[in-house]
Amino acid sequence: MSATPHPHPEDGPIAKTPRRSKRRIATEEKLIQAVGALLREGGVDALGVNAVDREAGVDKVLIYRYFDGLEGLLTRYSESVDFWPSIDEILGPDREVLADPDPQRVAGRIMANYARAIRSRPVTVQLLAWECNERNALTIAVEDVRERWATQLNEEMLRAGLPLTPQFGVLAALFTSAIHYLAIRSRSIQRFGGVDVGSDAGWDAMIETMERAFGAFYPPDTPSSPS
User: Fold this and answer.
1) Do 161 and 226 form a contact (C-beta atoms < 8 A)?
2) Residue numbers of the domain that contains 117
3) Considering its fold, how many domains does the chain have in total?
4) How confident is the model at residue 3 (pLDDT cuts 50, 70, 90)?
């Protein structure tokens, strides 16, 4: 991927700079949370400056003052951990997942944690579906957040000594795309291609198969750290 590294701290994608007062930070968080609430209750059609300011209980002029308008607010929402999983959520706060000496098992655990994180965020699944049909400020923000996040994840894996190849990147992209698509479809169907996409058991079976597929790139004797 050609995206630039994620510039934010690992424990959360929104940096709290000293120049922002506590009151402003609190108001920004109210507005960001209001966007999430509206998306959960009414989907993307429910979004609007007036709706957001009513939900947050603040003057709508602050949306323009703090975020340069609704598009800027939506971009900030897409960067929140409520919308997109943090690296800690996927790798563990102490990078426990990367401590496993088996690279194939590491790849499988990353996929399992990622699938669990996406499935637990219905608003994210909704916007991933919307992204398939729309190209606008919010879907562009979603794309940007996803690519920066993937770059950061790859950097973490490389620092841990996990060997990454172009073929691995392609396989990971295919699997993450499958996770997105099946999470979207599971909102309205129970089975896809004979797989129970509506149950944890079905997803566990898919993740196990993904882990086995990574074995083609990580045979048993592959070292997990630089020699």
Assistant:
1) yes
2) 87-214
3) 1
4) very low
Q: Which amino acid is at 42?
A: G
Q: DSSP assignment of the chain, as one string?
A: --PPPP-S-TT-SS---TTS-HHHHHHHHHHHHHHHHHHHHH-GGG--HHHHHHHHTS-THHHHHHHSSHHHHHHHHHTSTTTS--HHHHH-TT-TGGG-S-HHHHHHHHHHHHHHHHHT-HHHHHHHHHHTT--SHHHHHHHHHHHHHHHHHHHHHHHTT----HHHHHHHHHHHHHHHHHHHHTTT-SEETTEETTSHHHHHHHHHHHHHHHTTTS-TT--SS--
Half-sphere exposure at residue 181, Cβ-oriented, CA atoms within 13 angstroms: 9
Q: Give me 215's structure tokens.
A: 């074995």
Q: Is position 17 within any domain?
A: no
The pLDDT tens digits for 137-184 are: 778 888 888 899 999 999 999 999 888 888 888 999 999 999 999 999
Contact assessment for residue 53 and residue 32, using Cβ atoms and an 8 Å cutoff: no
Compute the distance between CA of residue 46 and CA of residue 40 in angstroms, rounded to an integer: 9
Q: What is this structure's pTM?
A: 0.77
